[in-house]
Design a protein that fits this description.
337 residues; mainly alpha; hpI Integrase, Chain A; three-stranded antiparallel sheet
Length: 337
């Protein structure tokens, strides 16, 4: 009996409808992700990206069980040479994303002893584009918004005032320290040295602990928060981990924080910038550069493994760098005859 392909997870197609081997593996993979809690949007996105991979395998009569390094190289090359309907090609970041999905799928197959290993892990990835931050607020505009967030007494209920106060503290903290929201969510009170105005980041992006600095203003704010507000937040929900500085898990903290940043500017969109948690980190790097801080220092402050990552802020503020060069260069003030 000729096997027919089913496009959708769980699709039967009626009597005699049999999923091809590659499709069966994809169906099982997506089903397991769903059981493990993946949201429908994630399942849909994963299926769409892996569809490109399976179409490539079908086009070349490859089975997933035959997956090898040579096949992985061929797939990556096909993505680089692919032309879309508008005549354009995939950007490096898109190729990295598609290869990443195929790699996760291959790891799943290898974990079930269906293939010997994940051949995608040996691929040399294309050069990844460094994305510029979104339109970042200047120093005065951000200062005005941070000041607005500090007016937590504007909230009607006590519970809302507590939440607004934590949003105020977290905003000031992220802007002062340059930490990622994931790093901040993992912080424990014992990681802080408020007198020394520093802290230990134990769960950094690169996996290596590092020391981050905070200023005297945020150090004083944290002292107030830890002794007065932190206990009140715990009373609100006894399930929270009292040893953690910001109490919630990463997903909950990020979701609530971004919601609060948006809610605080409702009706005043022209006055206050649209920000998400990571924009505060970007703003710090941007403002430090504008103030003349050397890139090497920005690299250390933000915990970048490579200085090239810190250089994205020079692209944001090219005009400011031009002015700085003109004012700082020994020949910058000489007028040509």
């Amino acid at each position: 009996m000729e096997e027919k392909r089913g496009r959708n997870l769980g699709e039967s197609g009626g009597p005699g409808y049999i999923l091809a081997p590659n499709e069966r593996f994809l169906s099982a993979y997506l089903s397991e992700k769903k059981v493990l809690g993946a949201k429908t949007a994630v399942i849909t996105s994963t299926r769409s990206k892996l569809r490109k991979f399976l179409d490539f395998l079908d086009e070349h009569d490859y089975s997933l069980l035959d997956l090898s390094y040579e096949v992985a190289v061929q797939y990556q090359k096909s993505l680089a040479e692919c032309r879309m309907e508008d005549g354009g090609s995939y950007k490096p970041n898109t190729i990295i994303n598609l290869i990443g999905q195929a790699s996760s799928f291959a790891s799943w197959l290898a974990g079930r002893k269906l293939i010997l290993g994940n051949p995608f892990s040996r691929l040399r990835k294309p050069h990844q584009e460094k994305k510029l931050p979104r339109d970042l607020p200047d120093e005065d505009k951000l200062a005005g918004y941070l000041s607005h967030l500090s007016r937590f007494d504007e909230e009607i209920s006590f519970k809302r005032r507590l939440r607004r106060y934590r949003t105020h503290i977290l905003s000031e903290f992220l802007y002062a320290s340059g930490l990622r929201i994931a790093e901040a969510s993992a912080l424990r009170i014992s990681d802080l040295d408020l007198e020394g105005m520093r802290l230990v980041v134990r769960e950094s992006k690169g996996g290596k602990p590092r020391v981050a600095l905070i200023g005297s203003y945020v150090s004083r704010l944290l002292q107030i928060y830890i002794h007065r507000i932190h206990p009140l937040l715990i009373v609100q929900d006894r399930r929270l981990d009292s040893s953690k500085l910001f109490l919630n898990s990463l997903n909950t903290l990020r979701k609530k924080f971004n919601e609060d940043l948006g809610k605080a500017r409702e009706g005043r969109e022209e006055e206050y910038p649209s920000l998400r948690s990571h924009d505060l980190r970007h703003s710090l790097g941007y403002h430090l550069l504008r103030a003349g801080c050397p890139l090497r220092y920005i690299q250390q402050i933000l915990g970048h493994a490579h200085i090239g990552t810190s250089e994205i802020y020079t692209k944001v503020d090219g005009r400011g760098l031009s002015k700085m060069l003109a004012s700082s260069h020994p020949r910058g003030k000489i007028k040509a005859n």
